[in-house]
Amino acid sequence: MKIDVIGDVHGCLEELKELLQKLGYGKNDTTYTHPEGRIPVFLGDITDRGPASMKVIQLVYEMVVATKKAYYVPGNHCNKLYRYFLGNKVKQNNGLETTVAEYKSLSDDQQKKIKNQFMELYEASELYLQLPEVHAVIAHAGIKTSYIGRTDKKVKTFVLYGDITGEKHEDGRPVRRDWAQHYHGSDWIVYGHTPVKKPRIVNKTINIDTGCVFGNALTAFRLPEETTIAIPSKQPYVEEKFSFFD
């Protein structure tokens, strides 16, 4: 097995297409495939903030559900959109408002199709992926060794939101513990969620959310090669959105 884990896309369709092409994937009707059978893995947060969340949903659906040529794990933004589609009361902020506006601009038939595709994608997904063939665990915001194999509420919160303390910084961001410093497992933990300017490797963990939607880059981590490939973002650069971790 050879995989390409793709960081948080956040509706950046053009960058995603460029990255897939740079990784060697070819366009085939409505999807992308690799001549060597490599498998893309979407790391969650495929929507919100960026310019083309609806088309990203459609592409990921085609690759993961329709053709089964890719894997996907949900992120916190995916979870929020799913709850919105269920009819739950969720605040339309932190990017969801852009996705909802895009969704509401569609015709009724298009809305129904997109909603059904996203809900099917989300409901079919595992909370995180264990891929022993490449000695890796793929989890949106990371995972502790003691949580691997579990899917209870505590683990779900960690995987979607990171190691949050419940406190907030002055700018409203949640305070997170640097859990990666305490990971000493032998498998890679590949995650995103917290934007960093370049892939952050700590022990056997790698954060590949390089803030495409905030103007930096969209990054993929290749296994078993243990290499990264990135595409520069086309979005405006927002310095304050990047992590304070080293």
UniProtKB/TrEMBL annotation:
Alphabetized PANTHER family for the sequence: BIS(5'-NUCLEOSYL)-TETRAPHOSPHATASE PRPE [ASYMMETRICAL], METALLOPHOSPHOESTERASE
Domain spans labelled Calcineurin-like phosphoesterase: 1-196
Listed CDD domains: MPP_Prp_like
Top-level taxon in the UniProt lineage: Bacteria
Encoding gene (name): prpE
Gene3D superfamilies, per the entry: 3.60.21.10
Name the UniProt record assigns to this protein: Bis(5'-nucleosyl)-tetraphosphatase PrpE
